[in-house]
Each structure stands twice: as C-alpha cells, then as structure tokens.
Amino acid sequence: MPSVYIETYGCQMNVSDSELMYGKLRAEGYESVDVPHGADVVLVNTCAIRENAEQRVIGRLGELRRDLKPGAILGVTGCMAQRLGARLLETDTRVQIVVGPDAYRMLPALIDGARQGERFSATDFDLEEHYEDFTARRFEGVKAWIPVQRGCDYRCTYCIVPTTRGPERSRRLADVVRETRDVAEQGITEVVLLGQTVNSYHDGTHDFADLLRAVGAVEGIRRVRYTSPHPNDFSDRVIAAMAETPAVCEHVHLPMQSGSTAMLKRMLRRYSREDYLACVERLRAAIPGLGLTTDIIVGFPGETDGEFEETLSLCRAVRFDDAFTFKFSAREGTPATRMPPEWTVPDAVVDARYDALVATVRGISRERNMARLGQRLEVLVEKEARKGDLYQARSRDFKTVLVPGTADSIGRYLHVELSGTTGATFTGTPVAERHALPMAG
Ligand code: SF4
Predict the structure, then answer these.
(1) Is the minimum distance from the CB of 79 to ligand 1 under 6 angstroms?
(2) Which atom of ligand 1 is nearest to the CA of 153?
(3) pTM higher than 0.90, yes or no?
C-alpha cells in the first residue's frame, strides 16, 4: 500500500483541507503516515497569508528534498500553491505537483502522472467544488472541523485570500447537517464550522442563523463553534440563533484589525470603529458571559500615532479576553502594495507599537482572568498538555483550563473550579457536577 504524508501550515481551513486530502487518498488505497521519511508521497499544504509563512515553507521544502526516499513524489498544495502556481515548478525542480485549494479532486491522477515523470500545476477555481463525496480522515477525536463556505467576497486591501481561495460560495445546509450527524455518530460532541466570513453563509435558501440552529439540533452535538465571522454579517437573526441554540458556545472571535475608522477605510474593512463597538454591544446584550477574542494588525500603511492610539483605546473599551496580534505583512498582488511608499511605517515604529499592543492586550486579559478565579464551569478535555501530567481542556467561552486526568479523560466533560491562572491560561480543580441539595429542616 503506498503511503502519504501531509504537512499542514496556516489556518484551520487548511487543517480541514488536509483531512479531506487524506480521506481522498485513503479511498484510493493510500495509507497515511506521520513522518515524511520513507513516505511515497509527501504533500506540503501551505499558507500565503504572511511573507514569513511562505519563507518557512520554502525552507521546509529544502529540508524535505534531502530526506525524500528515491522515487517519492513531492507536492505543494494550498494557498501558496494557488498564488505561485507553475512558478513553484520552475523554482524548485524537485517539486512535481502544485495543487490549489479547488483542485484536490485531481490529486490521485496528478500523483500517477508524477510517477511517469510528469510535472503539473492545477490551480483553476471550481466554484461548485465542496468535496461532498470525500470522507475526511480526521485526526482529532474530540472536535470536528467542518467547512461550510469556501472563498471570500470581501476585498480587504491587505489580504491575499480572495486571490488564493476565490469567490465566496456556501455548502448546502443539508450537506453540513449530514456531515455533522456522521461525526456525532462517531462520538464527537463538538463541531467548529469554518468559513472565511462564516456568518455571511448563505446556500441560496438558508442563512447562517438557519445553519446554527440546524447543526445545534443534531443529536449528540453538545458544542457548536464557528470561525471567523465578519462584524458586518451579524444580523439580528444570527445573533438570536446564537443566543437561542443551547449547543452554540458563548464565544465569538470577532476580527477588529484596527480601532481607527480612517485606518479601517484604508483596509477596506467596511465598518467603522463605532460600528464595531455597536456589534460587540449587540452580541454581549444577547449572550450573557460571552467570551470575545479578536485579530489586530499593526503597521498597516499610513498608520499614524493617533490611529494606533485608537486601536489601543478600542482594546481598552472592549476588553477582549484575548487577541491575536500581527505586524502588517505586504502580500504581492494585494491593493496595500500599491499604496504610496511614503505610507510605509518604519520597522522600528512597527516593533514598538506591536510591543505596546501586546502589553495592553495581555494586561486586560490578565485582569479579566484574575477576576474569574473561584468560578465553576464545564470544560471539555481536548488533549495532553505540553507540560506536566495535566490535560488541556476548553470552556464554552474558549478559556484554556489545565486539569488533572488520564488519557481516558480526553473527550470527557468535567466540572471544574478555576483555581489558578498564569494570566493567560487557568488551572482547574474538578468538582462534583451537582451539589447535594440542603437537607429539609
Ligand atoms: S474578510 Fe478580508 S481579511 Fe477576511 S478573508 Fe476576506 S478579504 Fe481576507
């Protein structure tokens, strides 16, 4: 049986695509292996969102080239494959196949061709392609990543995704529900719905509110999450569905990117600082105890000290539970690269702003977490923690809680008291799920 190894970079959409590719190749008689050494086919599933993500892949391809067994096929898939296409074949003569996100159906045929010495790049978009007949080979046993939408119709000026993943299109609600039922039957209790702007989901008949309610009603599913929404697509219907569907977790990852309306305009985010705040207020009013996380970019072209201050002040106003912070990375072909060169923010300024942002975000997160010590909540044990004999668990509002346990604890729900925090993550002490009722007097 030929073997295949896939190395995945980037976002959860790529993790999900790797699961689909493994599934397709398994159906064609391949076995999956977890090291590249000795594999018959090695695929690198890549990310193009930042310059350093691509540089890492180029470095990694060099290492893999040296390790490949004679006759093994080396392929590049994903967003970087889509962006560079046949250029990758020219610059790296050991790479034999280059496959974009809409062409994974061709993988078995391309691998067969590579065995005959062919080299091929497949990067056409296919707006009908959702890989409905593929059965994902899932590696995580606790939660399932379920793509519900591919591509993006927003055109944020810094973002390469509309180029690498094409226009937005949604899967049919019935197909998503079918996949959710399948994973529930395998004993998985949490699903994460994936899309570039997932709450703009619309299959022609059903919107994201319908989808949340339908997936949340599948028997055996106790938790529904989704990532990443766009602030403009939180209709009242979507917020109501979130609030009224018990399985939908009380957490939203709501990308903010900047706290300055002028900057948001240059980024073409299509909302203002006030719009963003209003969205946060609507979500918090409808969903008590909502966990809120975000993405923020510093050093976008033209960012002034005042605009950066507005980002800090919006962080203080919202008080996020956590934030992913990024230094702007110019991507070839995006509108941001055509902005006036004098708008470029010097590296030293970007570094200083980045440090200030991280300190602000961490400080707020720490304060919020300290205030929660002693609270009791339900966590789902996901995996072994990196250190000690603890296990990593997750609350509904997306807090990481380290708990004692054994390998059998993975996949179980526990009730814990938050007994300690590093400021970022918690330790939890298991408590009885139900407390004895007071004796009648
Ligand atoms: S919404 Fe903007 S940042 Fe998100 S994928 Fe689409 S273009 Fe990129």
Answers:
(1) no
(2) 6
(3) yes
